[in-house]
Design brief:
The structure holds 2 protein chains of 2 kinds. Chain A is about 60% helix and about 5% strand. Chain A is mainly alpha-helical. In chain A, strands 1-2-3 form a 3-stranded antiparallel β-sheet. In chain A, helix 8 packs antiparallel against helix 9 and helix 10 runs antiparallel to helix 11. Chain B is built from 13 helices and 3 strands, in the order E-E-H-E-H-H-H-H-H-H-H-H-H-H-H-H.
């Protein structure tokens, strides 16, 4: 069932479209990274827009997908966000608006089709998939919102969501099982309204704010709130991550263990992943600090440049001596260099926090655990129910046939649940292997991307300073 | 790191290009903290060498250098060398003299030179810091030492100032003598700072003149001089701002360095918990981050010494010019006052002559007697004041040109060092990250 070879090819081809179709580019439009740039020279580090929204799965590799051994390939792109009005049921006069995205799919048999979907549809798809494919490491869908409403511009938010959707759908398509699923097919192909029922399954709500798992599993609350508030990007993702970590550690370290897990191997791996998660979150925080300090550096460079511009102007205007004019010219060169640095440092930072984006790989494991937990709790409930039937009040005893029927039903349900549990465990094992490999390559790509980016910018900055050193070489002790 | 400069003469000092061939080469070295608590101060070893005679005493000097320990006070031979009698050079003991001096001794020298060389821009001293004195960080000490070294060498290479007897005393007098000299001047010169402040205010604003009780602000009306004054005051503002940002830049480097170090540690932890090739990749990343953190801290220090400090020095130099401007205003006022007084006396004399001739003879006699016995003749004094003023004007014009040239050179060097340092840092960063890539490749293929 698991075709590792084709999966890997699928992963390799999961490169993001830097020069994407979207017309919404609110930020500085510099040319995208040259796809074939060798490691040793980085002529054009990615623009701010590209940098924020691309992951580091791409490291300048060929963007056209290699002909894969798989017989099933989908290339998906998300584009053209449009504002539409919700004409149905709004109590407040004046319709609510939402954005739709054009989702274009091209299969390997060269057929192409498009549908228009809104984010709510994606949530539905994700829910159905996670229900249907328990035990598989289902890619995590993009967030509905982040913790509080932020000041991000609507355009930026829409663009961010578009990119995130694209990424998500491509991941789904690349998944060996989900890529072939009916749910995905319907989502991508069915025109008009999405023919998938919404679910009340709550496990997928985990990412939306600080939701506590046990309460949800037992209480069975359903939240259907779609908040269309823009997100702030990297920093809030971190916050979610932190809260998630919080809620998970509370669950598992809490007083009521919901599951007594017999699968030692699984528990070990989970523990290890938990530890890894902690460290990763720590790294993410530090990376964010790093970003901030690089930002500060850029700001100060800018201010320094400005101060020298003023000095240049002043000396030029007031110049009596030739030496003043010479000095003014020198100061201008310094100002130019500082300003260039200010510019570079401003654009490079967004890319640094690739680390925060890696939550997806880990969180699916947590999703899996929660599935198991919910199953177990159902089994428990059933057992409780059945014991009630057996040891209940004699005055409420039913007819014998009904009783037997009830017992049979309950026992069957329990058997089903057990079987499902075993199936999930089995899927776990193979999925864990797969995800290990995927995670490794994911992380290495991410690291590579981070390093390439840092090196590229450092090179550019060195060039700026070398130019200034050239311009002032007359003053060096060596030359005099 | 600047300790190696002991043998470099002022002609090689980056911030003091020689304006005349130096007879003297001075080094301020080996700062030592002495005293306790509030009384604590730093003493410096001031080594004076004679360039002319250096070759002949090279071996002697070499031996000397090897033997001298960091905290020892050494005396060199007391042979006197007669220098070219055509210069007004005071007699210097040689070929080398080492004395111990403290900050207030440098202040004494500066004040004396200022008093006796009006019109000349006296090289600036590093600030007297009451707060940092208690902490006396290694960085503060090094910056001060460097600034003092430059201060003395600038004086030694100034064609007028180098001939000063005060300089010779400073460089050669025994410590006890120096202490005596220093305490002697307390009365007169301690007032100076507040006086100067007063004069600054006068120069800067005509309004304050009225406030201070001067009915008629007596000031020069030379438009070119006005322009120069305005330039000096404006320049200080601009430079102070540039210096402020330069200092911030130093801080940013330090902060970023610290952040990289923290990041590196976190990544290493991650790598340790992971194991296998991925863990190794993370560990490598962590190690590189820590290396880069060290580079940033190093560059922060370089930046402070070679970029921020020259800017600060520039600001101080401008403040020194302002002091000279105040002196010039003072001299101008004196000249005017005396001229006024003379005019009034002459008017009185004429008046008396009109009224009664006998009285006039009396008055004239009185006047002559009085002035002969007690005061120098008014006319001579007035002429002296005029001469003083005119000297200041002439010197200031020369000094301004010299100042501009010197500053272009100083700043040019500072910019060059700045650029080189930053380029070195950026290249180091690029290299470090690049070197990680093959290691990552190895991890992914394994």
């Amino acid at each position: 069932m698991m075709n590792h070879a084709s999966h890997d090819d699928g992963m390799e081809s999961l490169v993001l479209n830097d020069d994407d179709d979207s017309s919404v580019h609110p930020l500085r439009p510099t040319p995208p990274q040259s796809p074939n740039s060798p490691f040793n020279s980085f002529l054009d580090p990615p623009s701010y827009a590209d940098a924020i929204f691309t992951s580091f799965d791409s490291n300048g590799q060929d963007q056209t997908p290699a002909p894969s051994a798989s017989d099933h390939f989908l290339h998906i792109s998300v584009s053209d966000p449009q504002k539409e009005q919700d004409l149905s049921a709004s109590l407040v006069p004046g319709a609510t608006t939402f954005y739709t995205y054009l989702i274009t799919t091209r299969t390997d048999s060269a057929t192409e089709f498009s549908v228009r979907r809104r984010f709510r549809d994606v949530v539905t798809l994700a829910d159905r998939l996670s229900e249907a494919y328990r035990g598989f490491f289902v890619p995590v869908r993009p967030d509905k919102s982040t913790v509080e409403s932020q000041v991000m511009q609507m355009q930026e938010f829409v663009e961010q969501r578009r990119a995130a959707l694209e990424k998500y759908l491509r991941k789904l398509a690349a998944h060996p099982v989900i890529g072939r699923s009916e749910e995905l097919r319907l989502f991508l192909e069915a025109q008009g309204r999405l023919p998938l029922a919404k679910t009340t399954d709550v496990a997928s709500r985990m990412l939306d704010g600080a939701v506590r798992l046990p309460r949800q599993l037992l209480g069975g609350e359903a939240e259907q709130v779609e908040v269309a508030q823009p997100a702030k990007g990297g920093r809030d993702l971190l916050r979610i991550f932190k809260e998630l970590k919080q809620s998970v550690t509370n669950d598992w370290g809490g007083s009521k263990p919901l599951v007594v897990e017999e699968d030692k191997e699984f528990m070990e791996r989970k523990d290890k992943l938990g530890e890894f998660e902690n460290h990763l979150s720590n790294v993410s925080q530090q990376a964010e600090s790093l970003v901030k300090f690089q930002q500060d550096m850029g700001e100060t460079m800018g201010e320094l440049g400005l101060a020298f511009v003023k000095l240049t102007k002043f000396e030029t205007e007031e110049a009596i001596f030739e030496s003043q004019r010479v000095r003014a010219a020198d100061m201008k060169n310094v100002a130019t260099a500082a300003d260039k640095l200010h510019e570079y440092l401003g654009t490079m930072l967004a890319v640094n926090n690739a680390f925060s984006d890696r939550s997806s790989a880990l969180l699916t494991v947590q999703t899996l655990s929660s599935e198991l937990a919910s199953l177990h709790s159902r089994v428990e409930k059933l057992e409780v129910a059945s014991s009630k039937i057996f040891g209940g009040d004699k005055s409420r005893m039913r007819k014998i046939e009904e009783l037997k029927e009830a017992i049979k039903v309950t026992e069957n349900a329990k058997i089903c649940a057990d079987r499902e549990y075993e199936r999930i465990k089995e899927n776990n094992r193979s999925e864990l292997e797969r995800i290990d490999k995927e995670r490794n390559s994911d992380f290495l790509s991410m690291l590579r991307g981070f390093v390439v980016n840092q090196a590229g910018y450092a090179e550019k900055m060195a060039a700026v300073w070398e130019k200034l050193a050239e311009e002032t070489t007359a003053y060096s002790k060596d030359s005099s | 790191m600047e300790q190696q400069r002991t043998l470099s003469g002022s002609s090689q000092s980056p911030r003091s290009p020689s304006s005349s061939p130096p007879f003297l080469s001075v080094s301020v070295t080996d700062p030592v903290k002495l005293g306790n608590g509030v009384q604590a101060y730093i003493s410096y070893r001031v080594i004076t060498k004679f360039i002319e005679l250096l070759l002949s005493s090279l071996l002697f000097t070499a031996v000397l250098m090897c033997v001298v320990g960091p905290f020892l006070i050494r005396r060199v031979g007391t042979r006197k060398w007669n220098l070219d009698p055509q210069t007004n050079f005071p007699d210097y003991q040689g070929p080398e003299k080492i004395v111990i001096r403290r900050y207030s001794d440098f202040v004494w020298l500066r004040d004396r030179l200022f008093e006796k060389n009006k019109g000349i821009f006296i090289p600036p001293l590093p600030e007297k810091s009451a707060v940092e004195k208690f902490r006396f960080s290694a960085e503060f000490i090094e910056m001060r030492r460097q600034a003092l070294d430059i201060f003395v060498n600038r004086i030694a290479s100034h064609h007028e100032l180098q001939q000063s007897e005060d300089l010779r005393l400073f460089l050669q007098a025994e410590e006890e003598t120096m202490e005596r000299l220093r305490s002697q001047e307390t009365g007169i010169f301690k007032k100076k700072p507040s006086d100067l402040m007063q004069i600054f205010k006068d120069v800067q604003s005509k309004v304050s003149d009225a406030v201070l009780g001067k009915e008629k602000p007596v000031e020069e009306t030379d438009p070119e001089y006005e322009k120069m004054k305005h330039y000096v005051f404006e320049l200080e503002n601009h430079l102070a701002e540039a210096q402020k940002h330069a200092y911030r830049l130093v801080k940013r480097h330090r902060e970023l360095g610290q952040s990289l170090s923290d990041f590196g540690k976190a990544v290493k932890l991650l790598g340790a918990s992971e194991g296998d090739s991925l863990g190794k990749a993370f560990s490598e990343l962590g190690i590189k981050s820590e290396i880069l953190s060290a580079k940033l801290q190093k560059e922060a220090h370089q930046l402070l010494m070679n970029f921020e400090e020259p800017l600060k020095d520039y600001v101080r130099a401008v403040q020194s010019i302002k002091a000279t401007i105040a002196e010039r205003a003072s001299a101008f006022r004196r000249q005017c006052e005396l001229a006024e007084t003379m005019k009034l006396k002459e008017i009185n004399l004429d008046k008396l002559m009109l009224i009664r001739s006998e009285k006039v003879a009396e008055a004239e006699q009185e006047y002559k007697e009085a002035s002969f016995l007690k005061y120098p003749p008014l006319k001579a004094e007035s002429e002296q004041a005029t001469k003083t003023f005119e000297t200041i004007v002439k010197l200031m014009n020369e000094e301004m040109g010299r100042f501009q040239e010197q500053k272009t050179l100083d700043m040019g060097i500072a910019f060059h060092e700045f650029a080189k340092g930053q380029a070195r840092l950026a290249n180091g960063i690029a290299d470090a990250w690049r070197s990680l890539l093959p290691k990552l490749e190895a991890c992914s293929s394994s």
